């Protein structure tokens, strides 16, 4: 079957390769690794995920329900703040519930059933993340309780949770663990589990998984606690692309922009926020002498919906394909229909080489999100 345009295409073989590696880490280190839906929630692929992983972490009632429906298990749940009218539904569908602040803990603890394990998110105040937008470790961050405010563990707390990494290596985790132990170590003999959040990019080439396994095994032994990791990106890292087509080439003042039938702001927002320059299927993100340069521009009316020059061996033409590599994590979960821009279709390149179209989006999807 032909791949429509625009279309997110997940490569089943690559997803499976990541799942095998993550499964190897969880088994070798004797820990549980769960999928963070915020990074990857393409539920048509969950039957494959479920072959290797037993759980997921949810950060909203919608993700909690998706976990129950499509992963077939209650979720590990951490929400920045729970809404009063949603809390009972959230907790009824959760195995673990983590509070971001002591005020939320005090507000809801009496409504947590006995069979749900209670955790608190804390701030270890160390991170290697340089982009402020993605760094939750500031001492005044709204994410997590600081050690000064957690002198005594409140009743029923069985776990501590931290998340301060993003696309990081195991050596960054080692630093975080040191900072966590120095701030919160005295609580560890009173709890059952530590959730070390996400940002562990163990599927990136060159990641030292042996070091990660030894690091976590050492932590477990020192404190006799269960360890949970909840990466998102690592699951979907380099598992597929966004296929688009050039609709127009605009030449203003000598700057050529190839306009494709997608949008950075609608479909690949990290490219503008981080900012992050994706690689292309054909073409170079760095200058190649003698090649032709074009800005790549989306179809939304946002003035900044473009990336600076990419280089192509041959001049681009209307109808040419532009494939943005590694566009599965933090894309589908963040898309919008701003400007009514067509949402890319979603498909899977199956391990037998065939393409299966999972879903196409149209006017009804756009209209249903508005009223
Ligand atoms: C609390 C929490 N857990 C897990 C993750 C997943 O992180 P990543 O996709 O970088 O592995 C995030 C990402 O923002 C997060 O905020």
Question: Can you tell me about this structure?
Answer:
The mean pLDDT is 97. With 371 residues, the protein is an alpha/beta fold. Helix content is 25%, strand content 23%. The longest helix is centred in the first third of the chain and has 18 residues, at 12-29. Helix 1 (12-29) packs parallel to helix 7 and helix 6 (170-184) runs parallel beside helix 7 (209-223). Helix 3 (61-71) links the parallel strand 4 and strand 5. The radius of gyration is 22 Å and the shape is globular. The protein folds into two domains: 12-236, TIM Barrel (Alpha-Beta Barrel); 240-368, Lyase, Ornithine Decarboxylase, Chain A, domain 1, CATH 2.40.37. The chain has a nine-stranded parallel β-sheet with strand order 2-10-9-8-7-6-5-4-3. Strands 1, 11, 12, 13, 14, 15, 16 and 17 form an eight-stranded mixed β-sheet that branches. Bound molecules: pyridoxal-5'-phosphate (PLP). Pyridoxal-5'-phosphate binds at residues 36, 38-39, 78, 163, 166, 197-199, 230-234.
């Amino acid at each position: 079957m032909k791949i429509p345009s625009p279309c997110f295409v997940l490569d089943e073989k690559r997803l499976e390769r990541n799942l095998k590696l993550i499964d190897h880490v969880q088994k070798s280190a004797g820990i549980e690794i769960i999928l963070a839906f915020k990074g990857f929630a393409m539920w048509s692929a969950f039957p494959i995920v479920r072959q290797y992983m037993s759980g997921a972490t949810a950060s909203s009632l919608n993700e909690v329900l998706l976990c129950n429906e499509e992963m077939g298990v209650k979720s590990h749940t951490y929400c920045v703040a729970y809404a009063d009218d949603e809390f009972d539904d959230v907790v009824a569908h959760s195995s673990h519930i983590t509070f971001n602040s002591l005020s939320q803990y005090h507000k809801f603890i009496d409504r947590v059933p006995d069979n749900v394990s209670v955790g608190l998110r804390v701030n270890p105040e160390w991170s290697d993340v340089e982009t402020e937008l993605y760094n939750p470790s500031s001492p005044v961050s709204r994410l997590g309780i600081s050690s000064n405010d957690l002198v005594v563990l409140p009743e029923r707390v069985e776990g501590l949770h931290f998340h301060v990494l993003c696309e990081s290596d195991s050596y960054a985790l080692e630093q975080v663990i040191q900072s966590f132990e120095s701030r919160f170590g005295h609580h560890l003999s009173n709890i059952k589990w530590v959730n070390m959040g996400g940002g562990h990019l163990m599927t990136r080439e060159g990641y030292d998984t042996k070091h990660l396994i030894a690091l976590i095994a050492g932590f477990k032994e020192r404190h006799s606690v269960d360890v949970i990791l909840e990466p998102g990106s690592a699951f979907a890292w380099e598992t597929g692309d966004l296929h688009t087509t050039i609709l127009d080439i605009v030449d203003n003042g000598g700057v050529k922009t190839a306009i494709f039938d997608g949008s950075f702001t609608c479909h690949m927002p990290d490219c503008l926020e981080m900012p992050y320059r994706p690689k292309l299927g054909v073409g170079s993100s760095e200058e190649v002498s003698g090649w032709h340069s074009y800005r790549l521009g989306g179809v939304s009316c946002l003035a900044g919906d473009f990336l600076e020059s990419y280089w192509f061996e041959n001049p681009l033409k209307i109808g040419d394909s532009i494939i943005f590599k590694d566009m599965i994590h933090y894309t589908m979960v963040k898309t919008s229909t701003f400007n009514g821009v067509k949402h890319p279709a979603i498909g899977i390149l199956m391990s037998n080489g065939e393409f299966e179209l999972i879903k196409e989006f149209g006017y009804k999807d756009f209209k249903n999100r508005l009223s």
